[in-house]
Amino acid sequence: MFLDMGPLELVTIVLLAVIIFGPDKLPKLIQDLSAMIRKIREFSDSAKEDIRKELGPEFKDFEFEDLNPKTFVRKNLLDNDSLGLKDIRNSFDLKDELSTVTDAVSESGRTVRGATGHEAAAGGAAASDRLRKRPAAPEPVEPGETPPFDADAT
């Protein structure tokens, strides 16, 4: 709880406590605070034990930290490799896949740049065919007329 506080912050809190409560009331306040924290911890531990007892023997190794999804996944999927996930993860070599894709893209770029006039014309004709196959813009609807229903669009 106090691990992320620096020494300057801790000194500031102590000075503020001395100024606000006074040096004569501060020891009693610290005792009361520590007793309250102790009782909260005892209550929490007894509640955890009651829950474990009610869950039964199959959940005897249940930890409340397992309720955190990240911890649950890490414990049950990543540490326990009964599914063979490490083999699957190791079979993917992203650098190799990325270099393959990069090489393929750079080769296709060289092919287009080095194409003869006939090959370039064939490529241009294919592109113009794709443009011609695009659907036309819908016709405007007159006022009071219902627009056509497109079942695929809904």
Number of helices: 6
Could you tell me the radius of gyration in angstroms? Answer: 35 Å
**For the residues shown, what is the average pLDDT?**
76
Largest sheet: none
First-last Cα distance: 53 Å
Specify the overall morphology: elongated
Low-confidence stretches: 114-122
Oligomer classification? single chain
Structural class: mainly alpha
**Proportion in helices:** 55-70%
Subcellular location: Cell membrane; Membrane
Main location: membrane
Membrane topology: Single-pass membrane protein
Protein name: Sec-independent protein translocase protein TatB
Describe the structure.
This protein is mainly alpha-helical. It has 2 domains: 1-60; 63-110, no CATH class. The protein has 6 helices and no strands. The chain has helices at 7-21, 26-55, 69-79, 85-91, 94-113, 117-132. The protein is elongated, with a radius of gyration of 35 Å. Residues 103-154 are annotated as: Disordered. Keywords: Cell membrane, Membrane, Protein transport, Translocation, Transmembrane, Transmembrane helix, Transport. InterPro entries: TatA/B/E, TatB. It holds the Pfam family TatA_B_E. Residues 114-127 have a biased composition (Low complexity).
What attributes does this structure have?
elongated; 2 domains; 154 residues; mainly alpha; 6 helices
How does the SSE layout of this entry go?
Blueprint: H1 7-21, H2 26-55, H3 69-79, H4 85-91, H5 94-113, H6 117-132
Question: How would you sum up this structure in a few lines?
Answer:
By secondary structure, the protein is mainly alpha-helical. It has 2 domains: 1-60; 63-110, no CATH class.
